[in-house]
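In the previous chapter we treated chains in isolation. Here, by contrast, the input contains two separate entities that must be folded as one system, with a combined length of 1310 residues.
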Amino acid sequence: MWDQEIRAMASTHAIIAASVFMATVLPAVLVPGFSVYGTHLLWLYLVSGAVTATSVAVFWLLGITPPTKKHTLGYKLSRLFRSCLYFFLSCLFFHTVVVLYGAPLIESALETFSLAVLLSSLTTLRCLCVLGPNVQAWIRVFSRHGAMSVWDTCLQITVACTVVGAWVGAFPIPLDWDRPWQVWPVSCSLGAMFGFLTGLVAAPAWIHYHRKQLTYKCK
Amino acid sequence: MKGLPVLSFLLWVCALYFVGIYLFMSGFLLVRLEVNRTSTCGDVLQPGEDPADFCRVPPRFRRVVLLIIDALKIDFARFDPRNTAPKPYENKLPVLEETVSSRPSHSRLYPFRADPPTTTMQRIKGFTTGSLPTFVDVGNNFASSAILEDNLIHQFGQVGKRVVFMGDDTWESLFPKKFHRSLPFPSFNVKDLHTVDNGILQHLYTTMMGDDWDVLVAHFLGVDHCGHRFGPDHPAMADKLTQMDGVIRSVIDRLQNDTLLVVMGDHGMTDTGDHGGESQKETDASLFLYSPSSLFSGPPAQSEPDVVPQTDLVPTLALLLGVPIPYSSVGQVLLPLFPPHGQIEGAVGGLSQLEALWINAKQVNRFLETYSSMAKDIPPESVSKLKDEFSRLSSEYLTSVREGRSPSPELAASVQTYLTSVRDTCRATWAQFNPLKMAAGLAILAFACLICFVLSELSLMLLREDGPRLKAPLVTPLVGGVCVASFQLLTRGYIEVAWCLVVAAFTSELFFLWKAHRSRVSDTAKNGSKAPKCASWLSPRCLLAPPLLVALLRCASLLSDSYVIAEGRVVTFLVFSLALYIPVHLNWDGLLLPPSHDPLKCAGLLPSSALSPSTVRKESSTLLGCLGLLIGSLYLSLSFHGCREEQGSCQPSPFLSPLSRLQDTQLKNLHYILSVVSLGLWTHLLRCCLRHYGNLNSSGGTVFTARWILPLLSVCLGLHWAVSATPEDSFRNLAKVISLAQLALPRAAFCLLGLGLFLIWLDPLTVFLKTRAGPLARGSSLPPPRYRASTSISPQAELHHLIPQIYQRIRHSLDDGELTRGSEVEGRPAVEAYGLGTVYSAPLLLFCGLLGIGLLLLHPEGMALSFLLLLLEMAALLHIHASSTTLSGLHGTFSGGYNVPWTPVVLWSLATTQFFHATGHLPTFPSIQWGAAFVGFPDGHTGTMLPASLVTLNTFAAHILFAVGCPLLLFWPLVCEVRGSRGERAFGEEGEDAVMEMRLRENPNQFTSALLQLSARYLFIHGAQVFASACAAAILRRHLMVWKVFAPKLMFEASGFLVTSVFLLIGVTLVLRVEIALGHWFKRLIPDASR
């Protein structure tokens, strides 16, 4: 029944993963002195930008974004504005959470904020693409019976994987190994990235294997 | 209510844990008693001669230069001319080899084997006392690290030798005021390769040329620091060793004939430059001896030792320099340094080999006798064997001396064997773990954890079929223990208690588990419906649920030294994660938000919520608000942490230093005001809470405590802070008053605290009761109470439902904000009882609060803020638990019982560790706040019990508060029920709802089982932590950090568990005490009411 959708999802995810890959490899070839650890912030923003651009384009092309009620330009603009605002607010939210988790408050605020931007572009942006700027729907999606389509389930899986990845990424920080990837926020952003990629792979696979059990109600 | 089974189960489990901890500790912690006697010149005499003073005889050497090059491995000192491509650390000290080959009778190079632990401080202790320092040298005063045992430096001082020291400042703390002149340099910064060495070099040569020294100790740290920083295989090491080569050359050039030069390393290093363990790379240092005058009788002979143990330096140096051998030395003189018997002509005033050996053996025997009379840890049979051997040797030697003939060379060899066997015996006792005991301890701990888990899962069943259940596990161990004891007595003649305990604990544990398993199987067979529930509790899915996963992560974190060092933050991280999990989980179950009545949504699949949307909204906002409070206090609590020395760039919290140490007056005032405000808030919040639930109306002991003792106690505390913070010279005329106040105020506070706790114990009920005959005007305006009981005729049924009726009054009084209000039901005399709804939690809360203030007294003033955060966090946790229970609708039906789920219990016990750190404590010995022992006793103590218990109370304050408050987790959802049921639902349902904690009385079985389950879960988590740190210590016992990180962590964790279990038992007992008092109260009430 959902074979087509699953295939669409898999290809979408492949495109997003490819964009992440390109954002890592291309500058490594082109820009001298680029490395994921050394120029971490650059990599981080490149990846965030790539993920943002591809997901917005792909989801817009696929037409997953919930249909707008009005088609006036002003309404669309206000929607766009609200989306941007929500994105920024989610960056602030993630920043606060990360600081509360124990990140330094003042010292490396830029690094912390960059991590928040990455997390937002991996999670909030997807919510924006799939559900639109509607916080209630976001909260609704993250409950057991809240998913109303395959895309909602996929959103649940990727967001959970990303957040858990970033959480696990904090584990190696206190270890005394003196590795370059233990520097704040490298391990966390790498963890989030790996979690996100895992989610991209896991979501279509999980949905494929559970397609018999999945029943979505009235959309 | 069956209080006794609960208590006995808990006591039994605690006893199992204690046995496990004791066994593990006795196998792991190497304990040695320090012998506080010192050798004197008079007591070591040669036989047969007139009792001349030993020290008067002119010694072989007048002076000695002791160059200690930290971590001078034997590989560094060797020189191999055939090695054409030497590594950075090879062939860099050619001077040693050159001297040895060019002047063979003047110098030697030996491998110098240290005993583990190969850390600098233990090594300095080792080669000055000649003993084998262990982790815990009992008798050592913990506060300072000064060596109290007899040692070389002390002996040098006794005979008037002037000891000049320069280098590593560890010496200064080990031998305070023992040096004639001392030039210590800071040793802590490992990255600094040159400060200490350059400091020494500035003074070394000038001092040597001067004449105001007899013993010159220079301790170079550069090589060690270079190893720590770069590892041995680095060009910096080559530079450092070349520098040392130059130093040794210059020193050799400046030596005079009566001077001995000793160049030695205190330990070696691994290939990565670390040390501390007992691999050969770490233990094998080098020892180089040189003197311008002839030192040896010839070139190296076949009989020379391959390796010199580090302890052997002490008697050798002592005899060469003519001082008595330190009392507790177990070393053996280096024979090649002494001329053979009959060839004394070369060395003036020296001793022959046999004489030196004799003196040495006599001293070792004397030490062995003293030690074995003080402590029993050396096996008695080996002690007696050694003693026999010595008496045989001594008679042989004495007869040969008396007869004037030269003793046989075999005698020297057997004296050497004797000395070696003494040292080996001592090492086996003090420096070797007992793996069997450790394994047994670990197994017992593991089973105890398993039993806690089983208890928590099967609590209801265990209590239901009570009777033989606990008696059998108590009788079997007795039988087992007695069996083992008698077996030991028969075969070996003495009893080793440890192994009897092992067998007893094991039989008890296995018996219980078997019984539990069998009864579970029979239960499943009998009751098919319960089968899935019972079968699921050990499945991996259940064990890997997030709360248990967090607990598991916490235990796993104890296995890594980095995580133990960063423990405070790790635990905060975990608490924060688990706290965030609660709303996420609730939202996942669709319980956080009221179910939307969107017609589009298919309602069939949603669980039908029993709660109205407004209640849900209210509860969720409470939950989120409390979560915010929790997170806020977690974050703020991070700023009260202390610093370990391993954490390089860390500033300890400014609130940790007592006020009296602050210089800035304004800052001082600010801190004082902050502390007093938090103290006031603590008191005020407690009283507010009690008043809110109507617990301050009666006239019992508890209420008296809450009304008067609590505020008085805080006033006392505030005044005490003010007095102790006054600078000493500011009020000279009031000095007497101040010193009196410093004595009296804390003591008064202690007395008040004791009185308060006693009163709570004596009269824990906070229920205010009134009986009135007639209806009041305002009472009639209330909606008539809707109880089925009110229409029943049977007096028995009437009594049965009396409790809800009573409760109804309280609720009305709460609603109207008025505390005394009468009501009347159908003309019968009405009974009013205020505070009945919180009858269990109120005394517990007050107990906690009082105890908190008492513990605060033992802390620095700034910690008041941290304690306030602790209270807030407790409240937030309780409310989160209550709201989430309400939201998930657990308490709505009786079938669910009052079980406390794992999440709040894990949070509660993690918060313990978190506040252990947030009150400025660390699991290290130097960070213990010794000042606590002097609160109220500024002049010190006579005994050791009182200061020890005060310091324990101070250190484990968080453990105590959270353990006593643990039963609150059971009560709080019921206490908060009043808000949840005030909505439309409460009155609409059957009459049996909303009686707060009276629900527990209605279901005594459920109550006891829930209480047992909660305590078992709490003990499980703490026990698992003890188990994990014991595992860490056992697995990593060869780790570099074991004595710095893991062993102290284990000791703190184990003592924390001890304190926790004791105070958890106190809390549970208090609840049972309330239960008993309540029973009496109802007995008194019921005749009154039914009259």
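Chain A has a mean pLDDT of 87. Chain A touches chain B at residues 100-102, 139-140, 142-146, 167, 170, 174-176, 217-218 (CB under 8 Å). Compare these points with the single-chain example from earlier in the chapter.
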